[in-house]
Amino acid sequence: MRFVTRMNTLEIITQFYDAFEDGNATKMGLLYDEKIEFKDPAFGKLKGEEVQKMWEMLIERSHGNLKVSYTIYDAAVNFAIVHWTATYPFTKTGRMVTNQIVAKLVLKNKKIIKHTEYFNLWKWSRQALGWKGLLLGWTPFFKTKLQLQTGLLLKTYIKNKQKSA
Question: What pLDDT is recorded for position 7?
């Protein structure tokens, strides 16, 4: 029975990242619990619909130029660790970014309920912003400002989607 549960975790995580590779935010969202909790250095903490809309926004804004690859490092009963790489042009500057990310995912009832990502924000900021990122990307001020900007961007995206629906 334990093996079957482990396989379910592997299958769910594989489906999630395969959908990401395919640019399918809708399928990614179907694998999340409605009370999903997400956290990363760029967006901070997000919950529920915000998480799915974040992926949708990022995929749309990439205009098909987002390349994703992943490796599942560990998958146990209701838990997985995934190393994934995103390569894309940063929208504001056009600079190419290759971001190496470690994700920890917790599942319950065959849905992802917690998704926490870790990456080097300073390294990301140097690639995305050039010398400004080199100088400021390591500071708490930069992280706070980035999370405020990404939060506003996401809220605007959600609001516009609701208007057009």
Answer: 54
Q: Do β-strands 111-118 and 32-40 pair in parallel, antiparallel, or remain unpaired?
A: parallel
Q: Which domain holds residue 86?
A: 2-164
Beta strands across the sheet bearing 111-118: 44-47, 32-40, 111-118, 96-108, 79-89, 67-76
Confidence (pTM): 0.91
Q: Find out whether 25 and 52 touch, Cβ atoms under 8 Å.
A: yes
Mean pLDDT across 91-97: 93
Res 17 pLDDT > 90: yes
Beta bridge partners of 141: none
**CA 56, 153, 83, 114 torsion-angle sign:** negative
3-class DSSP assignment, residue 122: helix
CATH code where residue 150 lies: 3.10.450.50
Residues 59, 23 contacting (CB under 8 angstroms): yes
Residues 145-161: tens digit of each pLDDT: 999 999 999 999 999 98
Residue type at position 144: T
* C-alpha closest to that of 67 among 14, 16, 21: 21
Please give the tally of structural domains in the chain.
1
